[in-house]
């Protein structure tokens, strides 16, 4: 399975960040699959943001759940992270993963 993140590299504070993960080589709706967004701020460790599973059920990090939603487009085999009211501390490399396979990551900078 291959995963590829896409989205803006620069977002202004207070805006909504939307990142899309395109999956190839497997269906996001296959029973048992789960898809996650993870980020790594500069100089820090990996942080889980949230998950959408094969039935569309979401789970979110407690620290980000008030600002996070993950949606999907099964016709395109994609899932999308929406992070609202971004702040500079949301600056990070964002990854999508199915726990086994990872995208290459995309740098997102929050700055005015």
Shape: globular
Number of helices: 0
Spatial extent as radius of gyration: 13 Å
User: Would you tell me the structural class of the helices and strands?
Assistant: mainly beta
Helix and strand sequence? EEEEEEEEEE
Helix content: under 10%
- β-strand number: 10
Give the biggest beta sheet.
Answer: 6 strands, mixed
Strand arrangement within the widest β-sheet reads 2-10-9-4-5-6
Report the span from N to C terminus.
Answer: 36 Å
User: What's the pLDDT, averaged over the residues?
Assistant: 96
Fraction in beta strands: over 45%
What are the low-pLDDT stretches, counting only 5+ consecutive residues below 50? Answer: none
A few lines on this structure:
0% of the residues lie in helices and 49% in strands.
Protein model, in words:
The protein has 112 residues and is mostly beta strands. It has strands at residues 2-6, 10-11, 17-24, 34-40, 47-53, 58-60, 68-73, 78-83, 92-97, 106-110. The strands form two sheets. It has a six-stranded mixed sheet, with no helix packed on it. A four-stranded antiparallel sheet has the order 1-3-8-7, with no helix packed on it. The radius of gyration is 13 Å and the shape is globular.
List its traits.
112 residues, mainly beta, six-stranded mixed β-sheet
Secondary structure layout plus pairing:
Elements: E1 2-6, E2 10-11, E3 17-24, E4 34-40, E5 47-53, E6 58-60, E7 68-73, E8 78-83, E9 92-97, E10 106-110
Parallel strand pairs: 2-10
Antiparallel strand pairs: 1-3, 3-8, 4-5, 4-9, 5-6, 7-8, 9-10
